[in-house]
TrEMBL record:
<dbReference type="InterPro" id="IPR011356">
    <property type="entry name" value="Leucine_aapep/pepB"/>
</dbReference>
<protein>
    <submittedName>
        <fullName>Aminopeptidase W07G4.4 isoform X1</fullName>
    </submittedName>
</protein>
<feature type="domain" description="Cytosol aminopeptidase">
    <location>
        <begin position="336"/>
        <end position="343"/>
    </location>
</feature>
<dbReference type="Pfam" id="PF00883">
    <property type="entry name" value="Peptidase_M17"/>
</dbReference>
<dbReference type="GO" id="GO:0030145">
    <property type="term" value="F:manganese ion binding"/>
</dbReference>
<keyword id="KW-0031">Aminopeptidase</keyword>
<dbReference type="InterPro" id="IPR000819">
    <property type="entry name" value="Peptidase_M17_C"/>
</dbReference>
<keyword id="KW-0645">Protease</keyword>
<dbReference type="GO" id="GO:0070006">
    <property type="term" value="F:metalloaminopeptidase activity"/>
</dbReference>
<dbReference type="GO" id="GO:0005737">
    <property type="term" value="C:cytoplasm"/>
</dbReference>
<comment type="similarity">
    <text>Belongs to the peptidase M17 family.</text>
</comment>
<keyword id="KW-0378">Hydrolase</keyword>
<dbReference type="GO" id="GO:0006508">
    <property type="term" value="P:proteolysis"/>
</dbReference>
Length: 506
């Protein structure tokens, strides 16, 4: 689907403030038009908080309202998200004041090279309207009628075009991530995805016999939900083939748990609320594919899998102590049904491994993206994704590069390292089991609680046979976005689409 249909309103460049046709001027940072200097200085003379809070006032010289959203005094430890946040707050204030056609002055920064792009992205993020609200109340489908941006850079057109492209991917990810357990149940996501990606190769696996035979760990999670037609699981493969011979191959698997009750190990004590966001990994993969579909890289082959399942509880739900043989032939003992994310992704990741090897794909790099563990949120803190490379990806310096790029574009990562301890933790404990899926404590109460699942995904898929010394080493990276995807009541962030795009599609 074209970029213009996935942007919440019309967006255009403006050259002159007075002739912009806008109803409010949004100023961020402290770079202000000369027409406002005197008034700003006057405000500062009697209001010491003027440069610390969002304000709205009328400019007599410009004869138009002004929203001022200042940046903090920047230290060595601030990052470009300051610009994103200030832009979002300026739009939020303009909308609350009732304006419909804001003009955003986009500042440049000596400290952050990509501040203009990130500023526009911050403004666009504030304009998103959830899909169900757009569908149920069509006259509320837009927060404003149009947005104008004034970018002083000579690359203004390029910056705006790139921002709109990136936002189209974030829009798709937010739509899938924000939908409630019924609006974005697996069959409904299939409808949405097939409509969006008419130009990509789409393969939907929904037959329960096929799933049971070829994706047995996913099938276990799907068992209870499969009893209800509208909740039945789907594995959706999306593929982009470049027009030129591929130089590298990206293979992404996203966790799409449309609702997580915890299964038989049910989430109790009020912590089930918000579990419709457990599909944000698959949502991010879909958003990334939207950017791929529009960007059309000349020599990058991309294959994606959305693992869409509801972790329901019922008579046929899977339970702890079951032993299930994975697609890779690994005997897995279930330790906790609330560790369903690694189960639903493992067999699709194994399929990616098989494709990389059997088809001799050029320079393959496998990924899993998931809101996987509370431990990731505890370890990294809200707003930060975690990147974990296997030994092969680690030797290329991938995680640090991704972290560096994420820092530049306001999509930050913390880097974690796999250790032998993580693999030992999952080792089978009795004869007849190869690995244990999980212990029976919450991840936040388990030491190395976000590294252990990454090790499991390597063990359960046979990726441990494709290390540095193997005939076919394979790069694999696990991204835990539990802390960055956005928890209710906040809207989904679409992390880590921006960083992935900048790291792997440029």
């Amino acid at each position: 689907m074209g970029v213009d249909k996935l942007i919440p309103c019309s967006v255009k460049l403006s050259q002159v403030i007075q002739k912009s046709g806008c109803d409010v001027l949004c100023v961020i940072d402290r770079q202000i038009p000369k027409e406002l200097v005197e008034q700003f200085n006057d405000f500062r003379s009697y209001d010491k908080a003027f440069d610390t809070m969002v304000s709205c006032f009328k400019s007599s010289k410009l004869n138009m309202p002004v929203v001022y959203s200042p940046l903090p005094e920047l230290t060595d430890y601030h990052d470009v998200r300051c610009y994103q946040n200030a832009a979002a707050k300026s739009l939020e204030r303009a909308i609350k004041a009732g304006f419909k056609a804001p003009l955003l002055l986009v500042p440049e920064s000596d400290k952050f090279a990509y501040a203009p792009l990130c500023t526009v992205l911050g403004a666009l993020s504030e304009l998103y309207v959830p899909i169900q609200y757009r569908e149920d109340v069509p006259d509320k489908s837009q927060r404003i009628s149009n947005l104008s941006v004034m970018i002083s850079s000579p690359k203004a057109e390029e910056i705006l075009k790139e921002a709109l492209l990136l936002e189209s991917g974030r829009f798709v990810a937010r739509d899938i991530g924000v939908g409630d357990p019924e609006r974005m149940a697996p069959p409904r996501i299939e409808e949405y995805v097939t409509k969006i990606f008419k130009n990509l190769k789409v393969n939907v696996i929904s037959n329960v016999d096929t799933i049971t035979k070829e994706y047995p760990l996913f099938a276990a999670v799907n068992r209870a939900a499969n009893q209800i037609e509208r909740h039945r699981g789907r594995i959706i493969f999306l593929e982009y083939k470049p027009p030129q011979p591929a130089k590298k191959t990206l293979m992404l698997v996203g966790k799409g748990v449309t609702y997580d009750t915890g299964g038989a190990d049910i989430k109790a004590g009020g912590i089930m609320a918000g579990m419709c966001r457990d599909k944000c990994g698959a949502a991010a993969v879909a958003g990334f594919m939207q950017i791929v579909n529009e960007k059309k890289p000349a020599d990058i082959h991309v294959i994606a899998a959305l693992c869409l399942v509801r972790n329901s509880v019922g008579e046929d739900c899977y339970v702890s102590d079951e032993i299930i043989t994975s697609r890779a032939g690994v005997r897995v003992r279930v330790g906790n049904t609330d560790a369903e994310g690694r189960m639903c992704m493992a067999d699709a990741l194994c399929r990616m491994k098989e494709l990389a090897v059997s088809e001799n794909l050029p320079d393959p790099h496998l990924f899993t993206i998931a809101t996987l563990t509370g431990h990731a949120a505890l370890a990294a803190g809200s707003g930060y994704s975690i990147v974990i490379d296997n030994s092969v990806a680690h030797c290329t310096g991938h995680a640090r590069k991704l972290q560096e790029i994420g820092q530049m574009f306001g999509d930050p990562f913390e880097v974690s390292t796999l250790r032998q301890d993580d693999f030992d933790f999952n080792a089978g404990k009795v004869i007849g089991e190869d690995v244990v899926q999980c212990n029976n404590l919450g991840s936040s109460r388990t030491p190395r609680g976000h590294q252990v699942p990454a090790a499991f995904l390597i063990q359960a898929t046979g990726l441990n046979k494709h290390g540095l010394d193997s005939p076919k080493p394979l790069k694999y990276t696990h991204l835990d976005i539990a802390a960055s995807a956005g928890e209710l009541p906040a809207l989904p962030t679409a992390a880590p689409i921006i960083a992935l795009t900048k790291a792997h599609l440029n």
